[in-house]
Amino acid sequence: MPPNNPGDQRPLRPLTADQAWRATSGRAGRCVLFFDFDGTLAPVGDDPTAVQPAPKVLAALEALAGIVQRVAIVSARPVDFLREHFGALSGVDLYGLYGLEHSHSGGGTVTEPAALPWVPTMAELAERARAELPPGTLVEYKRLSVALHYRTVPALADTVEAWGRAQADRLGLRVQAGRMVIELKPPGDQDKGLVIDTAVRDAACAWYFGDDVSDIKAFAALRAREDRDPDFLGVCVAVANPETGDEVSRAADLTIDSPEALGDFLTEAVHRLS
Ligand SMILES: O=P(O)(O)OC[C@H]1O[C@H](O[C@H]2O[C@H](CO)[C@@H](O)[C@H](O)[C@H]2O)[C@H](O)[C@@H](O)[C@@H]1O
């Protein structure tokens, strides 16, 4: 005899998108949808200040926020930057700087107190990077971290990475690798995995969409939650790109071709979950 409520069954892996949405629809009101920003919701470009969410993304997120328990952006960008793009959407939570900052339901930005003493160090580091790194390096100061970009001059990769790692050793900072970027952040275990681990405590289901190596920790947090709770559904979705190779896709249940394709996927999700 078939189960009474097939929508509540956790599907076996490997998952198809259809199975994942069907399993989600039975618990949509207890489901959280998490999204990385760069390379996931927004196509990658040379100028980090100029990128925009892909078409259809904003409308789909707003619609989904009215259907699921929560929609949240989990990014290495500061909350102020995320607010410029998502602040007009109601019901979207923002986690910035790998969770060192957050803003819930349109509220003010809350900063992790333990990170605040690192602000002067990061300011000094950004100034030094601008003075010492070769032209073509883009230094992005984010108050509690500094990103050193070499996208427009990829030949600088080794120089910029070596300089960044030496500064991390000198100052006791952590290094986060990314797409044509090396980022220096305060010591401590704050990362996207920790954000997810905490944010799914009262949920029955969560999806995480990401494209970069830092997103693999978020996938791992969903896997760990599933291991602890057989009723919990976690769905890990990679947004493909040639820069991270297959690493993110290999850790995911599903892979979507691009941020533009994600816009279509989420629009379909609105219909599947409504
Ligand atoms: O966690 P995320 O939201 O994915 O942020 C990761 C980094 O994204 C940005 O850099 C990346 O996107 C830029 C704009 O497309 C691109 O120019 C750069 O090469 C990419 O690495 C952002 O600027 C960084 O601060 C984030 O760490």
Automatic annotation (TrEMBL):
**Cofactor(s) for this protein?**
Mg(2+)
Indicate the enzyme's highest-level EC class.
Answer: hydrolase
Q: Give one GO term, molecular function aspect.
A: trehalose-phosphatase activity
What are the UniProt keywords, alphabetically? Hydrolase, Magnesium, Metal-binding
Instruction: Note the Gene3D superfamilies from the entry.
Output: HAD superfamily/HAD-like, Trehalose-6-phosphate phosphatase related protein, domain 2
EC number(s) in its UniProt entry?
3.1.3.12
UniProt keyword Magnesium, yes or no = yes
Identification of the protein by name:
Trehalose 6-phosphate phosphatase
The organism of origin for this protein: Micromonospora echinofusca
Q: What is the lineage of its organism?
A: Bacteria, Bacillati, Actinomycetota, Actinomycetes, Micromonosporales
